[in-house]
Amino acid sequence: TAKIRTRFPPEPNGYLHIGHAKSICLNFGLARDYGGACHLRFDDTNPEKEEQEYVDAIVDAVRWLGFDWGRDEYFASDYFDFMYEAAQSLIGSGHAYVDSQSTEEMRASRGTLTEPGRNSPYRERSVEENLDLFRRMEAGEFADGAHVLRAKIDMASPNINLRDPALYRIKHATHHRAGDKWNVYPMYTFAHPIEDALERITHSICTLEFEDQRPFYDWLLERLAEDGLLARPLPQQIEFARLNLSYVVLSKRKLIQLVQERHVDGWDDPRLPTLVGARRRGYTPEGFRAFAERIGVSKADSWIDYGVLEECMRDDLNARAERRIAVLDPLKLVIDNYPEGQEEECLAPNHPQQPELGKRAMPFSKELWIEREDFTETPPKGYFRLFPGNSVRLRYGFVVKCTGCEKDPAGHVTAVHCEYFPDSKSGTPGADAYKVKGNIHWVSAKHAYRAEVRLYDRLFKAPNPGAGGRDYLEDLNPDSKTLITACLEPALKEARPEARFQFERHGYFVADRVDSKTGAPVFNRTVTLKDSWGKVEK
Ligand code: ATP
Ligand code: MG
Predict the structure, then answer these.
(1) What residue owns the CA closest to ligand 1's atom 16?
(2) How far is the CA of 511 from the centre of ligand 2 (A)?
(3) What is the pLDDT along the chain (538 residues), one digit of tens a residue?
(4) Which numbered atom of ligand 1 lies nearest the CA of 243?
(5) Which atom of ligand 1 lies nearest, measured to the CA of 24?
(6) Residue 20 C-alpha to ligand 1 middle, in angstroms?
(7) DSSP state letters, 260-316
């Protein structure tokens, strides 16, 4: 039996996004699960919009997702010679003709969903005349739009796609790979089935909007097989529902607008749904593959909540990311009875469920940074953190008792004071004698690594941006990016680009792969620990 062969066929005219990730995981996943092969094919039949920059970015993105296509990398433009032959063969067998109507005339004679179309006055041209005209189209004798090569099928077909669809148009354009060789270019609907057949694809998987194209797909391949140009068995087109994600726009036009009008900081902005953006955000290939499995494949169009993708990333990061301490909104804590100038180390586990990842030392000293929200003068009911008279454990360190605070003239708290219990250090024999309800994190002020941290959030604040006729730009979330300077535990200074961590109690963060310098990483928030948007919706 024939091996399964699938393909992922992007047009190199933009950056891949999360919707493409679904298609990539589906096609490469099927090939992997059934011992087949999946091709990476650049569908570059449209010379005006395609560029090498996009080809390179697509290669990177598919590799990053964890897939390998071996030598099966193809370009539709490599088949242009064959396609040109195939078109002449269709003319020869009476299945194609050159139409010389204007675009408007063609549109007018196509008919509607309820009315049949009308035959073109040029439909009965002889094979010789058609061949001559088509070759002269190719030779560059005519202006763009002067003639079109059309299939000769049925202008009365209830399926509009079978009303003599265009196969080739004149285009005096330079192609990113073929250069100026061609003055005619194949239509996507003509080119795609041929590409599949030449590569011996078994399952040509595409999104639902191509369902009505399937009869033409089959018609074309049958004709070319009859003409002896293609071998059987022929590929089968199979449709699935595209991914729609709440809070996200995936349309190429909108993504380009967001970048060009600088609503975001470029194609790899961590807030964009592009795969380069998701990568910078700290999303993982494993998380994307788990997401694709979880949402599955169906023929029914549906919306997936963005929270599902975030949950997949959390699950993956929770299992793999080492823990670190970061104070994002620093407030000074002074331990009045800790000796001036003294320092010691506290041991913190790198991963609570994976002791084999070991522990690291965190320096401890008289002055620490704690989160501003971990202190209050007037505790509400159920507040177990620092307030005058209360004791908490400094996570992986000592128990301290709050004695008061300092304020500036405006009444703002500028420092908190406490006393520590020298025999309460975590991991020492006496530590368990101290029973406290609060447990807060900290960083030694003297040793802290002050770094830029970007708190990213969803780019849109509405589940369906632009719904109800609004301009989708009105739904941009004004708080999607917040820049702060945080106090990080010193070990984070050595973080390599793309190293991922859980900052305890805060969420998952990644060392930015673009802006980090050796010994001076900056961090992006990938996702918070809990879903705060789920609540907003209800
Ligand atoms: P265009 O409007 O330019 O065709 P496109 O997003 O379809 O944009 P392609 O490069 O043609 O871009 O897409 C490559 C493959 O990715 C296609 O097979 C397409 O079916 C698939 N794909 C694109 N968007 C989605 C999506 N939202 N969900 C699932 N698959 C998608
Ligand atoms: Mg497409």
Answers:
(1) 20
(2) 33
(3) 569 999 999 999 999 999 999 999 999 999 999 999 999 999 999 998 888 999 999 999 999 999 999 999 999 999 999 999 999 999 999 999 999 999 999 999 999 999 999 999 999 999 999 999 999 999 999 999 999 999 999 999 999 999 999 999 999 999 999 999 999 999 999 999 999 999 999 999 999 999 999 999 999 999 999 999 999 999 999 999 999 999 999 999 999 999 999 999 999 999 999 999 999 999 999 999 999 999 999 998 889 999 999 999 999 999 999 999 999 999 999 999 999 999 999 999 999 999 999 999 999 999 999 999 999 999 999 999 999 999 999 999 999 999 999 999 999 999 999 999 999 999 999 899 999 999 999 999 999 999 999 999 999 999 999 999 999 999 999 999 999 999 999 999 999 999 999 999 999 999 999 999 999 999 999 999 988 776 544 3
(4) 28
(5) 16
(6) 6
(7) HTTSSSSTT-TTSSBHHHHHHHT--HHHHHHHHHHH---SS--EE-HHHHHHHHHHH
Please identify, by atom number, the ligand 1 atom nearest to the C-alpha of residue 207.
20
481-488/326-327 β-pairing: antiparallel
Which residues does a 6 A CB cutoff place in the pocket of ligand 1?
Answer: 9-11, 13, 19-20, 22-23, 206-207, 242-243, 250, 252
DSSP secondary-structure letter at 413?
A: E
Angle in degrees, CA 386, 523, 332, rounded to 5: 25
Question: Whose alpha carbon is nearest atom 4 of ligand 1?
Answer: 11
**β-sheet bridge partners, residue 204:** 237
Amino acid identity at 258: L
Closest CA to 152 of 163, 160, 144, 161: 163
CA–centroid distance, 292 to ligand 1, in Å, is 15
Per-residue tokens: 358: 């070991």
Query: What is d(CA 128, CA 298) in angstroms, rounded to the nearest whole number?
Result: 47
Rounded to the nearest whole angstrom, what is the distance from the C-alpha of residue 112 to the centroid of ligand 1? 27
- Cα(252) to centroid(ligand 2), Å: 10
Integer angstrom CA distances of residue 247 from 165, 526, 527? 37, 16, 15
Q: Output the residue whose Cα is nearest ligand 1's atom 14.
A: 10
Q: Which residues are catalytic?
A: 11, 242, 252
Q: How far apart are CA 189 and CA 387, in angstroms?
A: 70
Which ligand 1 atom is at minimum distance from the Cα of 251? 6
Quick one: which H or E segment has residue 66?
none
Q: Which of 71, 18, 14 is nearest to 41 (CA)?
A: 71
CA distance linking residue 443 with residue 348, whole number of Å? 12
Pocket residue to mutate for ligand 1, from 28, 207, 238, 309, most atoms within 8 A of Cβ: 207
Phi, psi (deg, nearest 5) at residue 204 = -95, 95
